[in-house]
């Protein structure tokens, strides 16, 4: 009974968030200048958090520094290097940090201080209300790279699967390995560093067994092969366990977990064969089938990598001033949080799915003065997937004065956005793309959804973006479904365009395709894209703009087919996209109504007018 109450708290805590401010902000949007609305969000989030003025040093609770040794580890998809990691006999400071935080919280709050030095932590740092965890300059926390250490301390006893944590994995609720830094339903919390010598290290590329496998190996076979820099997964070979290999521990049929599910829906969710039993497919299948959280048990024996920092249902959150490095999965993942600020953080991880910052179903978020150097999207705004939409939309988000380097998309919305995304403002950004020769930014402004993820994107504004080294100049194409009017491997939605709206994102990965997305009211201005010398000429991208609207033929639910709307009310003005490689076809449109281009320069030519496709 206690376990059931604990799990029920996840849904109860988030029910009101999706509605809070939704109607109010929609009304404000109709009366305010959008950039004034962005200023109002910033003003709200500039109010500093207040903490009791007392410090709790972790050394007072038994924490001791550790010695380091050098090992060969993966530092990206394809590259290995000598890396420092704690000695095998390193003292574990997990208990000391936990006790310091719990004591600080119990006594009314304050600051838990991690001093300069190397610290080994074989378990999660769990934040509590009114506690500010601060890393001094030179403090380097090495989190254990062994998965079993994140199935020891969770609040839910799941037997052979371990003591697990209420989590979300790619926008579906589950019980799983704990993130390295975690909080749930806490208020007034902060995680800060004095500067970027204060490091939280996930050790995602350090081997945990004699076969050389690491967290990143669990990614398994890549579904989308990008043209540059991401053609393999560290130490993965066919036949190894991974998130996309069939897991025999998973049920053979959904009737075992959802006996009331109709046969037609069961067949639709499971699809052909048993690929749905791979962990990465199994979890969304459980969501589609309405399986409750307490039966979505992963952890030991499963291969869903946890996020590095995950905060669920929290209010008044500050993340500031540190570097996060080599994370197992997404770097920062606040879910159903209100009033979140991430500022002056260096998000550096080149492994699979190393998104820099993924706010999900959050309300009032400020991202400023951060640098993202990511193995996946730098920023990716999320809002639930399948039927896990209880927290509502992501909304009232400002992204400003940030720098992006490597990554799939610099500013991305989706792909998990079933609850909707609205009122997002991105301005004064530098997509520097310093690794353009070897590991380039795939695309700059990116939307991802499809008839599975559905949801809506509306009221998205972009202003003043500099992209001096362009984006990837070779195309990465998507694979369409049989019967699609779009031939496979002909549209460069995966990489190569500066602005990419992909409303048919990896459709072959989703068995259930019954939710047409709505994409409207998007306004982009002031993008300046530079050319680079590719050896074959001076180019900025493969194409300037790719807008692939929803593809109606993908629908596979019951008749009648619902309306599949075109992408509409999109304006792009006062932009210079440089010189695309595909100079004869620099803009691709499908299911787009009245795209308005005003003073848009592509390859030296200026485009004005309305365009549809």
UniProtKB/TrEMBL annotation:
**Lineage: superkingdom:** Bacteria
Per UniProt, the keywords (alphabetical) are: Glycosidase, Hydrolase
The organism's lineage is: Bacteria, Pseudomonadati, Pseudomonadota, Betaproteobacteria, Burkholderiales
Q: What is this protein called?
A: Glycoside hydrolase family 28 protein
Recorded hits in Pfam families, A to Z, give: Glyco_hydro_28
Q: Which family does it belong to?
A: Belongs to the glycosyl hydrolase 28 family.
SUPFAM superfamilies (UniProt xref): Pectin lyase-like
Keyword Hydrolase present in the record's keywords: the answer is yes
Biological process per Gene Ontology, one example term = carbohydrate metabolic process
PROSITE patterns named in the record: POLYGALACTURONASE (PS00502)
Q: Tell me, what is one Gene Ontology molecular-function annotation carried by this entry?
A: polygalacturonase activity
What InterPro entries does the record tag this protein with? GH28_Enzymes, Glyco_hydro_28, PbH1, Pectin_lyas_fold, Pectin_lyase_fold/virulence
